[in-house]
Design a protein that fits this description.
CATH class of the largest domain: Mainly Beta
CATH topology of the largest domain: Jelly Rolls
Largest sheet: 6 strands, mixed
CATH architecture of the largest domain: Sandwich
Shape: elongated
Radius of gyration: 22 Å
Helix content: under 10%
Strand order of the largest sheet: 1-17-16-19-14-11
Distance between the termini: 25 Å
Strand content: over 45%
Order of helices and strands: EEHEEEEEEEEEEEEEEEEHEE
Structural class: mainly beta
Amino acid sequence: MKKVYAICAVAAVFFCLPVFFLSCELLDPELKIPAYIHIDSIPLAADYGTQGSSSARIADAWVYSDEKLVGVFELPCTLPLLASGNHDLLIKAGIIMDGMAATRGPYPFYTIYGQPVALTAGSVININPLVAYYPATVFEWIEDFDKPGITIKSTAKSDTSVLIQKVHGDSAFEGGTSAYVSMNRNNVIFECENTSCISLPKGGASVYLELNYKTNWQVVTGLITFDLAGSIQEPVVILNPTATWKKIYISLTDMVSSHPDALCYRVFFGLSNTASAEKIELYLDNIKLVH
């Protein structure tokens, strides 16, 4: 049975502490006062025309000194280095995978930031990393709802009165337009999928779904796999209600690779109003399917 991961709606507060201890080879026993590296954030610079929005949620900095891992630090952070002199600093952009705070790692599609530093005891060096998508990243599907027409359609399961609409202005995430789904007590099921069946690499190749969302109801997100025998629909992640826009990175790697005979895939989003709620709302933006 496939696991469905729920996104915790309560934000946890962490001290900026490394997951790994400082490498012993970086410690100078003669030094009593460390030098400090401060990293406020790691923004993404994407080419909008070919890669879509620069929206990102880079939560951690994976810091290396002279190719040795110093530690993993939640942003923003100020980290000590018990070393002096010239060193080569490398920083990988870390994400929260599938919205699970305990599942973190460097995002495989973001470049590594590098910078030489001269460390002096007691000094604070401000680092301003900037990352981009690797040129080899393949964007199979981008939907930001800012262009004429959209590449999402309602499925046959949906109530006929439930439609995807575009919202503008303050209700939109960015770019002036986002997708909006509204349901009332007369609507029971909403489901939508991308219009094209997409071929994806298997064999463990990294495949991710990125999106920005806001919702007051649980949203099921997953894949529909098509092969010669027909199709199978499987949930991957449940998006929990959030009053503010959030960014999520959903790993589809295992699910895609578990279907070696698949011909193509579709992404789906679903809402179920079994409680006869008066008002259910879902906003979507900046959907990307990458490998």
